[in-house]
Design goal:
Growth Hormone, Chain: A; disordered C terminus
Length: 239
């Protein structure tokens, strides 16, 4: 059962929840190369491996996330992504050693795939043909605030209160958006009831058959594979 989102509210809410989830990730790119010893990392070269790990994980996982969203409600996937993002951010504060950091960064890669593809999917569902570009820009502009705040605040708070306490704070902040998500994204049960009343109209969908290799490398620079083109091709209505 696919639920069609209506109005701009879900897009704005998701655009404000996403930056809360990326605070810890963005902070690491500023703080970890300087305070890597405080993070329990053995040498500086390990920092580069740790910071790139989540991107390598996203290469094979994006096609799986796309299929996952065809099986589960959109709100469920985004809710799971927020929980995983908070868990990994808090985990960074207690990580010791390369293996622990790599596991947490891999988990964050999975969470980011769920969150980013879910965000694009929400925009495609909620927006019409004439305002889709505007709403996509709104979503991208809002969630990029998380990178800005994470780097700026992390660079100040890290040396001031310590790496662990800053990451714990950011991890707790990422949970603030959960109540708003629950209010903005209808559950599958509520969506079915609304569909029976004619409140939601979901057009038939088809899957675009692309090879896994092409799917992984359709995306923004850096081979993230989470472009709106990729998501829309998966969920475009039959014409």
């Amino acid at each position: 059962m696919e639920i069609t989102l209506t109005g701009k509210k879900p897009v704005v809410v998701l655009g404000l929840v996403t930056p809360l989830c990326v605070l810890g990730d963005s902070m690491l790119y500023i703080v970890l190369p300087i305070y890597w010893k405080e993070g329990g990392i053995g040498s500086l070269w390990e920092v580069g491996l740790i910071l790139s790990d989540n991107r390598w994980i996203r290469l094979p996982i994006h096609p799986l996330v796309g299929r996952m969203y065809q099986k589960i409600p959109l709100g469920t996937g985004i809710f799971l992504a927020v929980l995983l993002g908070s868990l990994t951010t808090v985990g960074y504060g207690f990580a010791e050693g390369l293996v622990a950091w790599l596991l947490l960064r891999s988990l964050w890669g999975a969470a980011w795939s769920l969150l980013r593809i879910g965000g694009y999917y929400a925009v495609i569902r909620a927006a019409g043909g004439q305002n889709r570009g505007e709403w996509m820009g709104t979503y991208n502009g809002l969630y990029r605030l998380g990178s800005l705040v994470g780097m700026a605040a992390g660079g100040v708070l890290g040396p001031w209160i310590g790496l662990r306490d800053t990451l714990l704070l950011f991890g707790c902040l990422s949970l603030i958006g959960i109540p708003f998500l629950l209010l903005s994204f209808p559950s599958e049960k509520r969506g079915e009831m609304a569909a029976k009343k004619g409140d939601f109209a979901s057009p038939p969908r088809k899957r675009t058959r692309l090879s896994p290799f092409v799917q992984r490398f359709l995306g923004v620079p850096g081979f993230s594979g989470d472009s709106p083109v990729y998501v829309e091709r998966l969920h475009s209505p039959v014409r």
